[in-house]
Amino acid sequence: MMADTLWKLFEITTIIALLIPIAAMLVWVERRMIGIWQDRCGPNRVGPFGVLQSLADLLKILGKEDWIPPFSDCLVFVLAPVIGAMCVLMSFAVVPFSPSIGVSDLNIGLLFFLAMASLAVYSVVLAGWASNSKYALLGGMRAAAQTVSYEVFMGLSVMGVVLLTGSFNLREIVLAQTDGWLIQSQFVGFFIFLVAGIAESHRLPFDLPEAETELTAGFHTEYSGLKFALFFLGEYLSVTLISAMSVVLFFGGWLMPEPLASLLPPLLWFIIKVMFFVMFFILLRTSLPRPRFDQLLKFGWVVMLPLALLNLLVTAVLRLTGVI
Amino acid sequence: MLVNLTSIESLFYLAGLVAFIASLKVVTGHNTVHALLYLVVSLLAVAVCFYLMGAPFAAGLEVIVYAGAILVLFVFAVLMFGLGKDETTNAPKHTGLANMLGAMLLAFALLVEIVVIINNADMQQKLQASVISPKDVGIMLYGPYLLAVEIASFLLLSGLLAGYHYAKPDVTGRPL
Fold first, then answer.
1. Cβ-Cβ contacts under 8 Å for B132 (sequence gap 6 or more)
2. Interval A17-37: pLDDT, tens
3. What is the CATH code of the structural domain delimited by B1-85+118-130?
């Protein structure tokens, strides 16, 4: 009993200790990849190929003054970035990384992920409110409207997966894909999930809460030092999280078709798939322009919501008639 | 009795205590956003209670729907109308004991009810009840409770229609 608990604690510590540096490294990977795609060098000065850029950034950010504006609501101001990073890290508790690795096999794992995603919005909204500045407030309001609308069909898009696998448990969802990944029948669901995921992690092209051309820096205008770093960390962690969830729900998690499966351990396959989607996120950022805010909301409610409902309906009909 | 509590029970009571204190802070605070935050904490604590009582699906929905969606809309309204400070200056002046009496009576009745329920039902048995899976909830909703589900959906539909009507621009092109 005691050994079990200690082992679990060790597992949790290892996962967190790996996730946070990975998220930090993503900052460098992103800048470097964007540089290469845009035919320039990107950061290449610190260490070989610039790998140590994130470490240099971290040292710089630790040396900055940790400033709390006198006009802000001090407690909420400090709390907001912590909520954001915490909710995303909590979501990783239900992600099954490999057949043996994974913190919790919660029987409502998928709902837990959705719940944490919906709580993460408080980070941005409260940061916007507590900063007591008009740019931050506008950013916070945009975040609230955007997240609440996109959350609706994020939940609907994964219900097709639940219909086909008959479970909310993420490990069971992966194991149900042994005969074939769910992307075969749920490609519409995957597309909707991905769009909603980009909006939830407010990355470009849906980064309107922090649109720097209109709102200075949106909700984190007043933040500096370590608190700003926490927002940054939360954003890159949630990119990783959405990629990991796409892999778990639609691309068979650690599973691979047989000739490939025995080449590498399952955990490595999982990481390769996740990295693929992270790269896709970065590619999206380099290539798409940012829409107007009303276009964003209209796109959500007029296009994505009916599409998600239709996907659910068709999946249910095909399931009942035994086609899939 | 308190000494014999198992770990699950103590967790349950801890969550209950958190919910209780957070709810108190909701109604005694002077800052709207802080009150809303306490309400979120209270809802999360109630979700933990649901989970410990063997209703994980209800716990999940409690967080997603109440804490994650409805209260975000509350916060959105607070941001939109700038309601950060307490608006007691606009409130009616007569806030004597007589006005609170009705609410106090109602709350007292609820309190008596809760005490009776707790005393009569064996709490330990309740906490170790079987876990209700999402599937069971679905079967119940679309079996014995189908009528209630349909009525609720009709209510939501009428709410949707009313919302659409109010948001529609009138003939002059201005929103109502």
1. B54, B55, B56, B57, B58
2. 888 888 888 888 888 888 888
3. 1.20.120.1200
